[in-house]
Amino acid sequence: MFAELTADGDDQHVKLVFAAHEVLIRGHHLRRIETGMQRMELSLVTALPGNQRNFVPDGQPVVQEITVREVGRDGGN
After folding, report:
1. Which tens digit of pLDDT belongs to each residue from 10-19?
2. Phi, psi of 44 (to 5 degrees)
3. Side-chain half-sphere CA neighbours of 53 within 13 A
4. Within the chain, where are the H helices?
């Protein structure tokens, strides 16, 4: 698995690349999620509904969107 964290203003993006799929995660404070995935310490990652985001303490990860794409055998789509 390969993981990459990038920032675009307030939004952060984590890209996870597996043998057959690519997972794109968009949210805030995602460094802990990236690290947890690399260490294989997470069993579940899910997007938090918008009406519940105000309950998350400042500085804690918030996943807004998860997109999964199948990667072709040649490494492309």
Report:
1. 899 999 998 9
2. -150, 135
3. 14
4. 31-38
Size of the chain in residues: 77
Average pLDDT over residues 46-71: 92
Dihedral sign computed on CA atoms, order 10, 16, 17, 20:
negative
Which long-range contacts (C-beta less than 8 Å, at least 24 apart) are formed by 49-57?
none
Query: Comparing 58 with 73, which gets the higher pLDDT?
Result: 58
What does the alpha-carbon distance between residue 60 and residue 70 come to, in Å, rounded to a whole number?
29
Is residue 27 within 8 A of residue 76, CB to CB? The reply is no
Q: How far apart are CA 3 and CA 14, in angstroms?
A: 7
Q: Cβ distance 61 to 27 under 8 Å?
A: yes
Amino acid, single-letter form, for residue 41: E
